[in-house]
Amino acid sequence: MATRSLFFFKVLLLFLALSDSFSATSNGQGVGINYGQIANNLPSPARVAVLLRSLNITRVKLYDADPNVLSSFSNSQVDFMIGLGNEFLQNMSADPTKAQSWIQQRLQPHIAKTRITSIVVGNEIFKTNDRVLISSLLPAMKAVYSALTNLGLEKQVTVTSAHSLDMLQTSYPPSSGSFRQEFIQFLQPLLDFHSQIKSPFLINAYPFFAYMDSPKEIPLEYVLFQPNQGMVDPNTNLHYDNMLFAQVDALYAAIKTLGHTDVEVRISETGWPSKGDENEIGATPENAALYNGNLLRLVQQRKGTPGKKSVPIDVYVFALFNENLKPGPTSERNYGLFYPDGKPVYNVGLQGYLPDIIYSSSASSIKNLNLWRALMGLAVAGLIGLDMGVKMRIPLVIGL
Ligand SMILES: *[C@@H]1O[C@H](CO)[C@@H](O)[C@H](O)[C@H]1NC(C)=O
Ligand SMILES: *[C@@H]1O[C@H](CO)[C@@H](O)[C@H](O)[C@H]1NC(C)=O
C-alpha cells in the first residue's frame, strides 16, 4: 500500500511537471534539438523518446539516419531532420544511384511511421576546404532530391545542407554580409537550387566562438541575449541587441548579393558550452543557462531578426546530451542540456524526465514505450495501480 501511494504521489508530481513544461511551449512550433550520439553512455532511444515527450520537444535533428532512433520514434509526434554524412557525397555525386539506395535503405523503411521531414546532406562541407568534397555537395543534393522525387516524397521531405558561419567573408555590420570569394562559384548554383526546390539554407552559428576569441571587445551581454545597448547597422539603421540575430542577417545579406531574397535561413545548430579549457573564456554553466534560456524565450515569442521581423527564428539547439567521446577541446564534450542520466546540466526552465523502466516482459523496446505511455495515461487518470505483472521503477521527477 505504501508503495502504491508513493507511486501515485510521484505520478502526480510528474503530471504537474509536465503541465508546466507544456504551457511553456504552447504557442509556436517550439525549439528543435540536436540529438548527437558521439558517446558511450547515452540512454536508449526509447527512453530518450519519453524524455523528449516530457519536454514537449517535437523537432529533432540527427547527424545520421540511425535506424534504432528512427524506429524508437515511430508513431510519435516528433519531426526529424536526418543527416547524410560527408563520407557519402563523393560517391553520390559520381553515381546518383548511390543516393537512390541510401534513400531505399535509410529512409524508406521508416517514412511510413516516423515523421522524417528533411535530409541534411553533408555537415559544414565548406569548412573542410576540400575542393572535391565541396564540388560534390550540389550534385549529391540533386541526386537525393531526384531519388525522393522518384518516390513522390519530394514535397514531404526537403533536401538541404548545414553550413558553418565561417563561409562568410564579412559579417559586420550585418547589411555588409558577404561570402568568401572562393566559395561563390559553388554557392551561386547551390542557392539557385535551394530557391528552385524551396528549401531553407541552414547555418550552424555560435556567438560563443566570437566571444571566446575577443572577450575584451565583445560585451558578454550582447552574446548572451542579456539587456545591453547593442549596435546600430549604419546602412539600415536597424538596431541589434544580440549577436545571433546579427549573424543571421549577415547571412541574409550575403545570400542577397547572389541575387536571392527567396531563400529562408534557419539555424541548424547553436548553443553554449557549460565547461571548457582554460582558454575557452566564457564556457560556464551560468553563461550556458543564460544563452539557452534566453534563446528559448525568443523562440517562444516567435521573434524574427531585425532584418526579417516577420520570419520567426527557427532554431535547433546543440545539444540534447553531453557527448563524452567528442574529440577536441573540453567545450566539445559539454554542450548538452542534459547529462546522459537525464539530469539537467543547468536550469533553463526545461523540465523533463528520463524513465528508468524495467519490465519483466520480453516485449521489444518500442512496445514497452507504448505500454509505458498507456500506463502513464491510466495512472494519471487514477484508473490503475501497479499490479499488472509489470515491474516498473518510477523515475524521479527532475525539478528545476
Ligand atoms: C506542445 O508544444 C506544441 C508546439 O511545439 C504545442 O502546439 C502544443 O500545444 C504543446 N502541448 C501542450 C499540451 O501544451
Ligand atoms: C564509395 O565508393 C567506393 C568504390 O565503389 C567504395 O569502396 C566506398 O566504400 C564508397 N564509400 C562509401 C562511403 O560508401
UniProtKB/TrEMBL annotation:
Keywords: Glycosidase, Hydrolase, Signal. It holds the Pfam family Glyco_hydro_17. The keyword Signal applies. Its EC number is 3.2.1.39. It catalyses: Hydrolysis of (1->3)-beta-D-glucosidic linkages in (1->3)-beta-D-glucans. Residues 1-21 form the signal peptide. The keyword Isomerase does not apply. Belongs to the glycosyl hydrolase 17 family. This is glucan endo-1,3-beta-D-glucosidase.
